[in-house]
């Protein structure tokens, strides 16, 4: 089944949820109007539908392979990456000063959704390069930025994040890799890193590894970690890749999904580099301040967390498209209401309609939420007023764990429903539905598991500001519910009622978290993921409510009835089938800790 | 990670939920006391832990292969099957008159859980043989029973169900395979069947295919389907397999999971049989009455549906054991309450505890529900009083779609949580957690999708008796809630409250279904799966409530404190985290149809 980028839906979300049409006077947004966005998206759709999407199944069936440290990526990937780079797609969101196009995150995020729908495994390579660029923008010296960003933004080189070690997964305090200072101010790195996405490949001429390691005598724990930039090939005076550095791929992982993405075990300092390096150890340079590596890495991780949330939306969209096409095509059984004399396409069966509507509402809810966050990011960087900028930044930071946590959790449901809609055919790999389920399964894990997003939501995003952002979201929900209740029509009334109930549940949850988290952390953290999911449903519900209003207004104005009827339907479905999950989640948080904690850890 | 059969949990469920200790005076239960059960289970555990479980990963990594119609199963499977057959495990539940052991379904079901936990793909072969025996018991002539059941019950031959064709999946009215009557009273079969589990293999000396097909001139639709028995090798006068029949494996499917189970495309009548057959067409005999094949097949399907529900429990148990072992072993991060000075095993983190408790409560809830159904089955067949037998039969039939639908849906959640607990390691195939997720994904599809179970629950099991069985379940929940409310202690109070709320939701759902299903089928069937899930949570909750009471009583009597504390904890968790999902499900059913049906099918 071929992929078609949902351009109308993306344009709708960019307007309604990210306010792309309400940015007059913003610096750097002079060209960022709806017409430009439409043109960029059309070009993006054309490229990804034609070049990248057809390689999705190829990558799944022909994973990257490694032989003697050299990785061959899936057939077609290297040529597709070349076209990706030449098309300027890597530089979309990056500063013009470094060769990028400086477009808003709102637009970058829409393009990222398309790329990830086309091919999640492929898209991880640019995603990691984006992260490396973000880290360089924040922590790099001007010289480092000038040296490393342009080739990364041009897609000539790619970036990686090297955090995890066998004993250090979510817990980076256990990182052991070491960096020894050299006389020339550089460092030699030694150690082993695992789960390095696109850690070795053949699609670009160089790889820029950002590596967490410790210098001798550094403090224990995360406060002794520094960030190093370690290229696969050292860069010569001509700016071209030269000597092969002492970092090699020892193996690739055999994974459940994203087979087209080479996940490497990297060895630093095994003595396999070019003899002209003059000794063992991978040569690297410090990025940012000594012992503040984790802080710098967090910049990269936050960008990546947002991007992984978008991956959730993207794979959900692809799974929905596949299920919908199958359900319209496959003829099976007579409709239960007898409306057709014989067997009908699956879409005529109520439960298939329910499944497709669930997929649709969760996908659109995720897209709306991610777009709202992108809009906040853009406002934080480009709004003319300082107060608005700082409010937007706080809002963005509050939304990131929801985008990452909620959009990826619901992607599990959407891709699993995608298999279910296909019936037995869904279980056959060649159908393609199962790949989306397998691919999606990593999303709630990498860049911080859902529990880690929930800890972030509670700790840094709710407790630290005394619940200010959380209350702002609740207030917004309340205001929207009031607006909706005043409108005629059953959809608005239905949404108003469910939004109010969800808001009340959320406020009770926030109050509980604020009152208890410091004094009795276990009961609060026993409900951390239910709290995150609750907040995610509410935040996405708020954005779907905006969509409902916009769709009703468009319908009243006689604009594109089919499209806006569909928007109205998915918003109402979101209210009646998804927001209604919220009170049960609140029960888990408010009144469920005793049973989570009843058994001693050893008895579990 | 090695598998350990949960003997204590199984014994507990056999007592508390299936009443194995309350069967004095039942015919055929003279030897079915708890001591016998314990002895059989111990032997079953020993065999499956030692012989079958170690082949689970082997089968996944080395799927069955086909070459020129001959299937080679995964390494070790043939030898393990030989031991399975020699151990008498196939005949456990089958009549002693045909060489079986005639044990109660309660015990057979417990053994089936163990076998399926050990190796889901392997266990499918005996599962299908069980189904063939059941169909022969109901539809076969005495001569057919005498000829075919003993070798099946001895495990010398295996059985299959041939329903699906490329154009006929859930919709069997579209079946086209044809059976032409021969002068000798037998038939020649022609056609193509797909998705035939263990349809061809090398583990036993013959295969007994039960095949749905049409005789010339049969009515269209399901009322023109007859059931035929078509052996791979025709049976000679000596009772031994002889001439190769004209049924061949054209290919095996490349599936998401259960790789060790060969899923065959079978061609009947391609002219590849032994020349001595004297012409093309697979030779078969009619089983049961002409044109009533579907009815006979339903006997087999109902047995298989129950068994697939047990598969859900089984794979959930295996996933739970693996996650729990990893979480006790893997050290990562300091506990959020500061109770330990450094990094602690994962089980110390509240969200990991929540995930493990969710896995545990859903697995135990499924087991309790399946055991309650098995107890009803045994009562239907062996209770001394006719009225009790017929009540038990109605109860069993009501529970089957819940066992199949609910236990397999929650198995998706349990196996997915199993991956999540492992973090990044869960995504690596060698860890084994992902296999359970992949294996489990078929369970909500085969033997009737969840939507088909929901249709059965609504149509045959709720409407047909005017809601009598549904109301009986609600009354039982109400009575248990009253009992619980009268007991001291927070767990009983908590369960009482949630059981009452769930019961009220269920009653509202039943009333809605009864009032609307015939007049307005679409709105009811738009909520059919939420209704099934709601009923499943309630029915499992009722059984968990029984467990809670039994555990409290055992604790009061000073029996096995650790075990019964754990039972108490999982029952309370079930109430607070799982029964609390029920009101949201009721919302979907009672007030969610408009948004399911808002978009025209063509617009989905």
From TrEMBL, chains A, B:
Family matches, as InterPro entries: Acyl-CoA_dh-like_C_dom (IPR025878), Acyl-CoA_Oxase/DH_mid-dom (IPR006091), Acyl-CoA_Oxase/DH_mid-dom_sf (IPR046373), AcylCo_DH-like_C (IPR036250), AcylCo_DH/oxidase_C (IPR009075), AcylCoA_DH/ox_N (IPR013786), AcylCoA_DH/ox_N_sf (IPR037069), AcylCoA_DH/oxidase_NM_dom_sf (IPR009100)
Occurrences of domain Acyl-CoA oxidase/dehydrogenase middle (ranges): 161-269
All copies of domain Acyl-CoA dehydrogenase/oxidase C-terminal, residue ranges: 291-457
SUPFAM superfamilies, alphabetized: Acyl-CoA dehydrogenase C-terminal domain-like, Acyl-CoA dehydrogenase NM domain-like
Segment forming the signal sequence: none
Domain Acetyl-CoA dehydrogenase-like C-terminal as annotated: residue spans: 480-599
Key words, A-Z: FAD, Flavoprotein, Oxidoreductase
UniProt-recorded Gene Ontology molecular function terms: flavin adenine dinucleotide binding; oxidoreductase activity, acting on the CH-CH group of donors
Pfam family, one: Acyl-CoA_dh_M
Domain Acyl-CoA dehydrogenase/oxidase N-terminal, first and last residues per copy: 74-155
Cofactors that this protein relies on: FAD
Keyword Magnesium (UniProt): no
Protein family per UniProt: Belongs to the acyl-CoA dehydrogenase family.
Protein name: Acyl-CoA dehydrogenase
The species this protein was found in: Aquariibacter albus
Highest classification ranks of the organism: Bacteria, Pseudomonadati, Pseudomonadota, Betaproteobacteria, Burkholderiales
